[in-house]
């Protein structure tokens, strides 16, 4: 059996394209929002929001399974482990099922349910999985589908509603060869050995009451109604036994005991339906339970905020068993420095509308360890949208809130909240010019070369501010000259960046690009379509990035623009942006990312651009003419094509990619430039026969000339470093692969004052 399964699973395993599979990714998902737990012996299989981890209670070992391993990164609804087949089944709200082979570590996907015609998407959810011999019964929102474990194929589907209609099935149980279904319209049952179960007439209805679940304990069948009444089912009749005084979110049998779980309470009943434990009034933590298992005299619970917990009773200090990670998956804003990353989870619409206001914490990754700050510790600061690390004092971080001002944190602790009360930040005006009390919409933040923090405030006259952190002084600047209708409900301000000359640039929802010269107090604006500023229709600027040549890259709701000399907007009222024009495969000129909504832009050490869109992330060359990578959910571990934010660690070149479904990191190679050649290295080195990727040479000075020759002095590669690294594809000028041997790397600084030699060994 296992030999057969191994062959099948390899054939259907997740296999990225060759180019992508050679790339290196990291998982930074949240493992705290638990959806379901399954157990086999001392091993727990835990489904988080869109990831899974395996926890061994005996060894305390944890294995993470995510999109890095091939999971689909959709919302998990149910998981099941088959000990007989050594397979973990992960069911999703979409009806998709991922199957993980614990032996081969491969994943393959069962797409039959999502592809079913005539079944609305809302009815494809996997609600329960029940294994019986070589069959796995799947309870869905339309009925029951059979999966044949011995063949790894789908079997029949049972539509058990009246007249064969779709009927939501919440849970399944088998007693005395009868298959019971807890449905929205009563308990239904049929003989599981009946060869004609696809005929709805073969299914019997006990009643028409709505049921949440059905379970078997000691051959006694129990059912739970939608009104949280626990019933016995005997001779296909029900008798009410226990009225539960809370909303049950999970009903199961564990260790021959009946576990009823509510969001803040767990009740345990024995086989006689006598209450044996009642856990509530938790004193050490505030739970939001989703499920619970009882094993070896301990409770193992899934919590929507705290992850997998283990404790003995309500007064016991719990063990926190989830893998460390960010507090949430729905990333909105990122900022990174060497070996550190900050993430926030606020949100607003494309029109900069923050409602409904969310209340979410902050995540900080430092030296590969996550530190999470709960919302309860944030002084009621909602909708956190942009973190910015002070480059002169890296333990100091400012985070903007698009409703409550902004925060200052030092060493992960809030030291000050800037708002209308503490710092006289101006409050939002409504379209009629009336003050909206308690509404201060700070968005873009950046530091100038003197260490001053600049930021934007939407829908107010003094929409630009400067904070001098050393003194705490705040200065405000009147934007009404450049945006006369600043208080209109659709004219919020977005991102802000500062160039090498300390000129300020910030975006707006409908007023294009705004510039400010602090030295002269002058404002300037670039707006309009082809005959003016050449911005896309709507003039909605979402994000900005200054590259290593001080060129301003502008992301809008309808495409990408570049301002090659941004300071010219202060002297030339006719300043116009440019599209990036590329040639497609047929040689036809096309605009790069035309009509794409650009969410974020980041510049790496080689001056290449990482561009976040709703269609994945694009990695383009310094001038935008070449698309180096286009990562999507189809060809990479991206958990979602809706990419919200990108941040790059300049020392490691690691690219953090935040999406609406989680955070991943791509191990890039474009490090920042160095002052000398002391840290030059080439890797991998030696290049062994199995390796097909490029060789990276980093530790370079910007503008350095890089030549590679064979041992006889024949030139095989030459380039100029744009940042701190270059890559060589081990081909002679991009043509044929070079032969085995030692290759000499000759480095010369741009001013020709410094040189360096290195060696690369290639083994074919």
From TrEMBL:
Signal peptide residues on this chain, from the entry's feature table: 1-19
Keyword Translocase appears in the UniProt entry: no
Record flagged with keyword ATP-binding: no
Pfam families given in the database record: PorZ_N_b_propeller, Reg_prop
Record domain PorZ N-terminal beta-propeller: where: 45-204
Species this chain originates from: Mesonia sediminis
This protein's UniProt keywords: Signal
Residue stretches spanning the membrane: none
Protein's name according to its UniProt entry: Two-component regulator propeller domain-containing protein
């Amino acid at each position: 059996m296992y030999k057969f399964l191994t062959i099948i699973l390899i054939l259907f395993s997740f296999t990225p394209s060759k180019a992508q599979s050679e790339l290196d990714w990291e998982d930074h998902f949240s493992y705290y929002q638990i959806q379901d737990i399954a157990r086999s012996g001392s091993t727990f299989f835990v489904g988080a929001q869109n990831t899974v981890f395996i926890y061994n209670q005996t060894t305390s070992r944890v294995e993470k399974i995510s999109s890095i391993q091939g999971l689909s990164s959709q919302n998990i609804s149910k998981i099941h482990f088959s000990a007989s087949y050594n397979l973990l089944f992960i069911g999703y709200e979409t009806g998709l099922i991922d199957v993980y082979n614990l032996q081969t570590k491969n994943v393959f996907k069962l797409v039959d349910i999502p592809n079913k015609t005539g079944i609305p998407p809302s009815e494809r959810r996997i609600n329960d999985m029940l294994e019986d011999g070589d069959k796995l019964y799947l309870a869905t929102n339309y009925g029951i589908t059979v999966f044949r474990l011995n063949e790894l194929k789908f079997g029949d589907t049972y539509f058990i509603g009246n007249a064969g209609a779709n009927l939501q099935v919440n849970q399944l149980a088998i007693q005395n060869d009868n298959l019971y279904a807890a449905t929205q319209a009563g308990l239904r049952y049929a003989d599981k050995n009946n060869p004609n179960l696809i005929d709805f007439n073969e299914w019997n209805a006990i009643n028409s009451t709505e049921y949440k679940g059905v379970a078997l304990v000691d051959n006694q069948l129990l059912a739970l109604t939608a009104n949280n009444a626990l019933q016995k089912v005997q001779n296909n009749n029900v008798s009410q036994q226990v009225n539960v005084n809370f909303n049950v979110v999970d009903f199961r049998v564990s260790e021959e005991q009946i576990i009823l779980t509510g969001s803040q309470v767990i009740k345990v009943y024995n086989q006689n339906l006598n209450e044996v434990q009642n856990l509530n009034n938790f004193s050490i933590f505030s739970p939001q339970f989703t499920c619970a298992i009882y094993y070896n005299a301990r409770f193992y619970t899934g919590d929507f905020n705290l992850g997998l917990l283990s404790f003995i009773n309500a007064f016991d200090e719990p063990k926190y068993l989830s893998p460390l990670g960010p507090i949430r998956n729905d990333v909105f804003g990122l900022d990174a420095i060497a070996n550190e990353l900050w993430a926030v989870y606020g949100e607003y619409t494309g029109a900069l509308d923050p409602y409904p206001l969310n209340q979410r914490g902050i995540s900080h990754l430092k030296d590969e360890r996550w530190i999470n700050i709960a919302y309860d510790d944030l002084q009621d600061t909602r909708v956190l949208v942009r973190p910015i690390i002070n480059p002169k004092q890296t333990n100091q971080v400012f985070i903007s809130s698009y409703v409550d001002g902004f925060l200052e944190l030092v060493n992960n602790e809030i030291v000050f909240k800037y708002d209308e009360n503490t710092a006289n930040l101006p409050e939002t005006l409504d379209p009629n010019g009336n003050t909206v009390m308690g509404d201060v919409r700070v968005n873009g933040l950046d530091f100038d070369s003197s260490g001053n923090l600049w930021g934007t405030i939407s829908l107010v006259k003094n929409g630009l501010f400067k904070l001098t952190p050393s003194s705490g002084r705040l200065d405000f600047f009147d934007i009404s000259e450049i945006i006369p209708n600043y208080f209109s409900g659709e004219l919020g301000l977005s991102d802000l960046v500062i160039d090498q000359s300390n000129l300020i640039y910030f975006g707006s929802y409908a007023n294009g690009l705004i510039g400010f010269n602090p030295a002269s107090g002058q404002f300037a604006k670039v707006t309009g379509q082809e005959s003016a500023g050449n911005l896309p229709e709507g003039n909605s600027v979402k994000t900005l990035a200054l590259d290593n040549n001080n060129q301003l890259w502008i992301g809008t709701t309808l495409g990408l623009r570049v301002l090659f000399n941004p300071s010219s907007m202060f002297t030339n009222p006719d300043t116009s942006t440019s599209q990036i024009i590329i040639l497609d495969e047929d040689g036809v000129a096309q605009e790069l990312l035309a009509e794409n909504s650009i969410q974020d832009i980041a510049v790496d050490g080689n001056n290449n651009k990482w561009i976040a869109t709703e269609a994945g992330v694009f990695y383009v060359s310094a001038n935008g003419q070449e698309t180096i990578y286009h990562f999507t959910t189809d060809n990479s571990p991206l958990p979602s094509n809706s990419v919200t934010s990108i941040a790059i660690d300049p020392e490691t070149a690691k690219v953090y990619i935040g999406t609406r479904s989680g955070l991943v990191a791509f191990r890039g190679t474009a490090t920042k430039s160095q002052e000398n050649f002391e840290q030059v290295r080439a890797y991998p080195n030696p290049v062994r026969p199995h390796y097909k990727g490029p060789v990276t040479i980093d530790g370079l000075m910007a503008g350095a000339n890089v030549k590679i020759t064979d041992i006889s002095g024949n030139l095989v590669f030459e380039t100029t470093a744009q940042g701190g690294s270059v890559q060589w594809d081990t081909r002679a000028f991009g043509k044929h692969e070079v032969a085995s041997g030692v290759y000499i790397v000759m480095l010369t600084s741009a001013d020709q004052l410094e040189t360096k030699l290195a060696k690369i060994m290639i083994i074919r």
